[in-house]
Automatic annotation (TrEMBL):
GO MF term set: cobalt ion binding; cobalt ion transmembrane transporter activity; magnesium ion binding; magnesium ion transmembrane transporter activity
The name this protein goes by in its record: Magnesium transporter CorA family protein
Organism name: Streptacidiphilus fuscans
Localization annotation: Cell membrane
Coiled coil: none
Membrane topology note: Multi-pass membrane protein
Length: 350
């Protein structure tokens, strides 16, 4: 579903509704769940306060590229803590979950492996969780929010569990992205393993560069995925009051995926290190083989050099000045050279 830009003009409302509106430069998406069912979608942001005040209503607000005035409005409308809003305004936050008196703040990263290079594509997301509202803040439109909405629509029977249901769909999307990224890097590591012992493999520098890039990506992925374990585990605690008991199995499934990603990342990082070390060992073995071959051919070439040099001395020798002496020296050169060739060949030196 495409993002919809909403510009609302100030209207006279009740005291519970602010007369301020979100700026026209930010992209806004909204949803209203009433008694567990989707009631409204993409309604004006100015109506959020009215819907939040209703019993049995849950609101989702998505802001893309918000302005400072938008954050000020969020603070006023939802009573968000200023430190949480400050973290949402600034990029490159550490993945974390901060708990406040009546809401939580989550900072997380969606990642995926790029197809044209070894680096990761990272998308930052800030999330505010209140008793009856889920607010997602994106710095740009690179985060695929449509997939999250599809997950909500695929499980309408879970809508009765309110914010916990909406947050689960979001976390499930993010963790699945981590899982796909680590799986893609696993496939690329297998490709490196296949060409590692290939005689016609790419240059050593290319293998080393690909291995180093993979190791760097795995370290970055681990930084994004590892804090998710503590984040999901904290949300599952009963004193947080975010996840209802019927939603616990779904959050447990997300937690299991987080554990798999972190463990898989650790094992792949060790594998990349082994590939780099093995590649150096293979190149050393190939260099030793080349040195043996060069030395063997040098030994064979030394035979005719020695024979012709000996017969080139200005002293008489057996066969000096005769035809049969020439043929003897030629036979000695060829015979010794052939014998050395087959001797080296049998030892796999040539």
């Amino acid at each position: 579903m495409p993002d919809t830009a909403v510009t609302a003009a100030p209207t006279a409302t009740s005291t519970a509704t602010s007369t301020a509106t979100l700026s026209a430069t930010s992209t806004v998406r909204t949803r209203l769940y009433r008694d567990g069912k989707l009631a409204l979608e993409n309604f004006p942001a100015a109506e959020i306060s009215d819907h939040v005040a209703e019993d049995g209503s849950v609101v989702w607000l998505d802001l893309c590229a918000p302005t400072p005035d938008d954050f000020a409005l969020l603070t006023e409308e939802f009573g968000l803590h200023e430190l949480a809003v400050e973290d949402a305004r600034h990029e490159h936050q550490r993945p974390k979950l901060d708990r406040y008196k009546d809401h939580c703040f989550l900072s997380m990263y969606a990642v995926c492996a790029a197809h044209d290079h070894e680096d990761l594509v990272i998308r930052e997301l800030s999330v505010f969780v209140t008793a009856n509202a889920l607010i997602t803040v994106r710095t740009d439109d690179r985060f695929d929010m449509d997939d999250v909405v599809s997950r909500w629509d695929d499980a309408p029977e879970l809508g009765q569990f309110g914010v916990g249901f909406l947050l689960h769909g979001l976390l499930d999307h993010v963790v699945d992205g981590h899982f796909r990224a680590v799986q893609d890097m696993d496939d690329r590591i297998e490709e490196l393993e296949d060409i590692l012992f290939d005689a016609n493999a790419k240059e050593t520098r290319d293998i080393q560069r690909a291995s180093f890039a993979l190791r760097k990506s795995l370290v970055r992925l681990r930084r994004m995925a590892l804090p998710m374990r503590e984040m999901v585990n904290t949300l599952m605690r009963r004193d947080v009051h975010v996840v209802a008991d019927p939603m616990m199995p779904y959050y447990q499934d997300v937690y299991d995926h987080v554990l798999r990603v972190t463990e898989w990342t650790e094992s792949l990082r060790d594998m990349v290190g082994s590939i780099m070390e093995t590649n150096l060992t293979v190149q050393g073995n190939r260099m030793n083989m080349i040195m043996k071959k060069v030395t063997s051919w040098a030994s064979i070439v030394a035979v005719p050099t020695a024979v012709t040099g000996f017969y080139g001395q200005n002293v008489p020798y057996p066969g000096f000045g005769t035809e049969w002496g020439f043929w003897v020296s030629t036979g000695v050169t060829i015979g010794i050279s052939v014998a050395l060739y087959f001797g080296f060949k049998r030892r796999d030196w040539i």
